[in-house]
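pls ignore typos typing on phone
zinc ion + seq
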Amino acid sequence: MVELLPSILSADFAHLADQVAAAERGGGTAIHVDVMDGHFVPNITIGPPVVKWLRKATKLPLDCHLMIENPDEFIPAFAEAGADWVSVHYEACRHLHQSLDLIAQHGMKPGVVVNPATGVELLREILPMVHHVLVMSVNPGFGGQEFIEFSLDKIRRLVELRQELGLAFRIEVDGGVAHDTVERIVQAGAELLVAGNAVFGAGQPERDARALLAAARTAAGE
Ligand code: DX5
Ligand code: ZN
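k done
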């Protein structure tokens, strides 16, 4: 079942609760929260205090995508703030197995993220530990970038690996998910679709979430 995860990176932060509510009415089933530290990626966004207030504003799961160095140091604070899913970058974790363990120990669903240049084969050993694999289809840091086409091959390879290993992790894609790409993305096998600009960019999150989700469901034959 394909799901839409609105990314608040492109939302109006002065009206965050309203924006999240509108995206939920449009069919969003989890809220994607981009956490950036200005080191791992060339941008700074938000952290646990905002997650804490989002937690009070919506019942939807909060999917926290950590684009930060030393993520282990902050995992307890995200748990405390009410994060549900936490994903860490393969490229940011010196001891990825331990980081994923730490997320699970704090009662959250662990995910692993790969940058465009990182192959999914590298994840084989830790796939049994994850709730979701997040394929970055742009270089992380900013919303509104162009979808990188070879991400589709990585999604297809993950579908094969999941089958081969008999696992059930979800496949999530982030970056450039929009009307002109969503059909190919869904047909490649992604199920959790993160979208920032396509949902919030025109200032009509309910309408635009609904339209994007409808296109995704059609492409999935749902
Ligand atoms: C980018 C973030 C994304 C971002 C996607 O580094 O991880 O979640 O919001 O934005 P769009 O959907 O605009 O490409
Ligand atoms: Zn993200």
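Strands lie at 3-6, 31-36, 62-67, 85-89, 109-114, 132-136, 170-174, 192-195. Residues 91 and 114 are 7 Å apart (CA to CA). more later
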